[in-house]
Amino acid sequence: MSGISLIMATIGRVDEVRRFVDCLSVQTSREFELIVVDQNPDDRLVPVLEKVTAMGIALRHLRQAEPNQCLARNLGLANASMDVVAFPDDDCWYEPNTLELVTARMGMHEVSGLVIRWAEQDPYGQLARELDIVKWRAFREVNASMITQFYRRDIFQTVGGFDQALGLHSWFGAAEEIDLMFRTLALGAKVVYLPEALVHHAFSSGVSADHWRVVCRRARNRARGTGAIYAKHRLSPYVILRGFTAPLVRPLLSGHGWKAMAQGFASVVGRIEGYSRWSWDERSMGR
To answer: pTM of this prediction?
Structure first.
């Protein structure tokens, strides 16, 4: 069916989901459905989702007991009915014309995927272009967080779904979106950056003065996913070495202080852990 399946895995949030629903209510294109994979143990989202139905938006409310973002997204994929799929976070939101712009560009059938612009992270944007796998493997391409990615649903018949070893609620706590893009571009698929289409998501590059230890733990967990990508996709020694050193070099050169250095050190440790464990697991399984 022509349109976009918006697959949202969510746990613990209500107001943010309500904000996303509100942004859907003013979209200039209504060719979409919302699939909510609810990982909450209660019915906190029911009143919010009743509003979706009242607005006449096609809704599928799925339940999943085990918190695992990639598992939830794969469940949503299995229930998607539109020919384009996207995976908004439960705390992001779109401009009113975002889905219209995406629908129009994906209507040009030579395109397998789109990366739109995360407004807070990239306020000025870059030139529209096709993504280059060589630059991607060197981490020199445009940022492509999962909230920015849209794909034709049939691409997943070839690349498979999300790697459930990666991402939120796993030991390798991130990088599922990087892994997906690697696998898609490796097929020779055409993925285009569309800077005029915007997604919003709060973005902070700083370290909280009150909770820097929590920030460091999260940085280490997420960095394990990046380290796993180095091993899984057999990146060049130069890229890996740069990845192991950059989180410390950047704050050192910028003079951002010891808290930023601590977060950088946590990221380095996490990347090394992720790389080592993924490499060990592959050797253990004879891959």
So the answer is: 0.94
The boundaries of the domain holding residue 238 are 212-284
Residue 209: what pLDDT? Answer: 52
- Residue ranges of alpha helices (H) inside the chain are 15-25, 46-54, 69-78, 98-106, 133-137, 156-159, 176-186, 212-232, 237-254, 258-284
pLDDT band at 93 (very low <50, low <70, confident <90, very high): very high
Which domain CATH number covers 51?
3.90.550.10
Residues 190 and 244 in one domain: no
Average confidence (pLDDT) over 10-14: 97
What is the longest distance spanned by two Cα atoms in the chain? Answer: 54
Q: How many domains does the chain have?
A: 2
**For residue 27, what are the CA distances in angstroms to 4, 86, 95, 99, 195?**
12, 15, 8, 7, 18
pLDDT for res 283: 80
